[in-house]
Amino acid sequence: MRPARIATATARRLPALGTALLLALGPFAPPAHAGDTAPPPTTTVRHAGTAAPRALPVPKSPDTPRDPRPLAAESQGRPTAPTAGDTVGAAPSAGPARTARQLTACDPATFTGAAGATLVQRVRSAGLDCVNTLFTLTGTDAKGAFNEAQMVTVADALRDTAAAYPGGNSTSTGQLVLFLRAGYYVQWYHPDAVGPYGAGLRTAIRGGLDAFFAAPHSRDVSEANGATLAEAVTLIDSARENARYTGVVKRLLDGYTTGWTGSMAAAVGNTATVIERGFELPEFTAALQADPTFATSLASFVTRNAAGLTGSDPVTTVGIQIGNLVAVDGLRTQGRPIVKDLINRYPLVGATAPLTMNLLWFAEKKDAGNCSYYGTCDLPAKLVPLVLTSDHSCNPNLRIRSQSMTAGQNADTCTSLVGQDAFFHRVVKDGGPVADDRNTALEVVVFDDYYNYSLYAWEMYGIAVDNGGMYEEGNPAAAGNQARFIAHQADWLRPSFQIWNLNHEYTHYLDGRYDMYGDFDAGMTTPTVWWVEGLAEYVSYGYRGVHYDDAVTQAGKGSYPLSTLFDSTYDNADSTRIYNWGYLAVRYMLQSHPQDVDALLAAYRVGDWNGARTLLKTTIGTRYDADFATWLKACAADDCGSLPTDQAPLCTTADARQYDRNCRRDGVAAATGDYAYSFLRLPPGVQQLTITTSGGSGNADLYYNGPSWATTSSYQAKSTGPGTTESLTVTAPPSGWVYFSLHARQGFAGVTVTTTYN
Question: How far from chain centre, in Å, is Cα 313?
């Protein structure tokens, strides 16, 4: 399932996505040959231009794992609700954090049917697991347990108990703290059921927290104290008393060392919530303005403990909150020098990257226009070689830059894209690139996982990262326009290797180059989403031979007539209609009405958007709706049919080695190590020659050598994937005789070879 593709006007001005598989030819010295000669075609390398990109987001997989390392962009969107009951338990033996739904339930009547001293006794005698289930109360149970009078009673009990707090949970202080946390949580989400909280509770909770944090044993550095302390720190934020307890936060930060582990480390980590959501409260900001030592405590906390940075540690979690200092007008003077120092002090890659990159996010997003002060104006360019340490060229026009892809993974990705090129052209039957399209080179950027994509891609490429990747088309008519697909590995599928959405997005590139005139915005002049996204789904699933379960399921529902799908846009359709139903519409049209598809693409390829629209809505209109409905029923039963056979005619010359403009030869064969040599004569002015192979058995590699016989040691371009499916597209080949061959890496037979040119 994929989210809507949209143009992003705010993306960094980067070059756009271009053709991957038009193989430029190098100046190799050919052996002697028969026939005419001509100089080899020149190689044209297109460098990054300045055209504005059309940034098209890729879907984020629902299977993307949640990474424990922080992302500043995510934290800015959090609600100000109290934290749920899934933090460290208050007893030393409580074990790992667990959510309320995972804990053993207890009877809410235990708490709703009691008041005063009886309520306090029941809370204190209940197990922590039982109290933690109270975060899920609703309705009358929520009212009975957590109305203000009940909360005041328990807060007063915390005050009285805390006076003799022993540094552990032997007096059940943890149950009292957790009950109060649950009350604030439930009241936030169900205020009408619970009722309002007022001054009485505020006075009581301050008394309880004051007493706890004043207790000498609340300062103990121990697992026993840390369990209850961690919950009490979170209660500060639940009660929105962040400003009152900045001194407690400083005390924890100033005392922390990397020797604090377990619950003590969790207690320090929980201060991040107090700090982060404190910035939403004017009184908290005022407290920090009045006490500049809070900012210096934050900075010292990071620099003292930097050796322990891992990305998932309390120092990183809390240190990132320093960035909020530059987001507040009254605190920016305090925050700027600290943020500048930390960004430039620690590496942007490795264990310190989650801290430095998140602080950089605050500097750029919340203190925009000051990159000179921070020394970060040239950072996007610097990051590319630091982060993308693998640089692999499939051929002169297809490049893969990644964090850590292996040689085998690079080779497999190249093979996948090269093979898809041939599959695509067989489906759409194009005659070469549309006019004015210069997207002749593709760069595929692959981060190790979604987290690294989110951490770096926003800065390196100026894109939104709340998605699963981004395809940048740019202005294909601009000289030097660079096409780029920014992606990440599907780490949830490991040990299998997969680049998320690679084939879907590559189809967008091919479709834009060979079917859609102009840039992405031009193609959206009229509703074309059914074709653009439907074709990408069709080619991706069809080429990979993957059964499209979701689309077949949707076919059984019969939700849309074909004529309605022709009207789909990113604004009026959800992801199911755009992708599942786009696939069904495209597949039906390709199989049942290929002549209409030919006419439609003829209009798209010259930018006749109105003519294409007339074909869909007037010429076709509703005429195919009934047949489409019948086809959907068959497809739901897993009988979706297949594309009509569309092969080039057989070549007619007597010499089995000779080919022509649009012809094929079947049954091509060679023994292991041998060649099947071939040639054809090109007239002057040929823009593009395409040679494809398919079918049969064995392993045949395709080599092209222009005006000389082609061998494994003398060639200008090659396609050497596994099996017999190969494709070469040569731009501006010489006129006269040109030569290609199939080399049998493993003996092959029954192979079909097709040549076309325009």
Answer: 24
CA distance 130 to 625: 58
Two tokens at 45?
Answer: 């390398």
Q: How far apart are CA 173 and CA 189, in angstroms?
A: 25
User: What's the CA gap between 680 and 558, in Å, rounded?
Assistant: 50
CATH 1.10.390 for domain 524-637, yes or no, is: yes
Tokens linked to 170: 């032997």
Q: At what angle do helices 529-544 and 502-514 cross, to 10 degrees?
A: 130
* Cβ–Cβ < 8 Å for 421, 19: no
Domain ranges of the chain: 81-241, 524-637, 658-757
- What global pTM score does this model have? 0.73
Q: Angle at which helices 173-189 and 223-238 pack, to 10 degrees? A: 30
Q: Residue 488 pairs with which residues in a beta bridge?
A: 447
Residue type, 343: I
Report the CATH fold assignment for 658-757: Jelly Rolls (2.60.120)
Please report which confidence band the pLDDT of residue 645 belongs to, taking 50, 70 and 90 as the band edges.
low
Exposure of 754 by Cβ count < 10 A (0-12 exposed, 13-18 middle, 19+ buried)?
buried
Q: Give the phi and the psi of residue 259 in degrees, each rounded to 5.
A: -75, -15
Structural Rg of the chain based on CA atoms: 33
Residue range 426-437, pLDDT digits in tens: 899 888 899 998
Report the DSSP pairing between strands 736-757 and 697-704: antiparallel
Token pair, residue 601, equals 């693409």
Summarised one tens digit per residue, pLDDT across range 575-605 is 899 999 999 999 999 999 999 999 999 999 9
Instruction: Tell me the two tokens of residue 200.
Output: 């009485």
Ramachandran bin of 38, using left for φ above 0, alpha for ψ from -120 to 50, beta for the remaining angles: beta
Q: How many C-beta atoms surround the C-beta of residue 18 within 10 A?
A: 28
Residues 6+ apart with CB under 8 A from 9: none
**Cis-peptide, bond into residue 3, ω within 30° of zero:** no
Long-range contacts of 488-496 (CB under 8 A, 24+ apart): 488/446, 488/447, 488/448, 488/449, 488/450, 488/452, 488/453, 489/446, 489/447, 489/448, 489/449, 490/61, 490/63, 491/65, 491/448, 491/449, 491/450, 492/61, 492/63, 492/64, 492/65
**Tally of CB atoms within 10 A around 53:** 30
Write the pLDDT tens digit of every residue in 478-513: 888 888 999 999 999 999 999 999 999 899 989 999
Lowest mean pLDDT among 80-89, 106-115, 494-503: 80-89
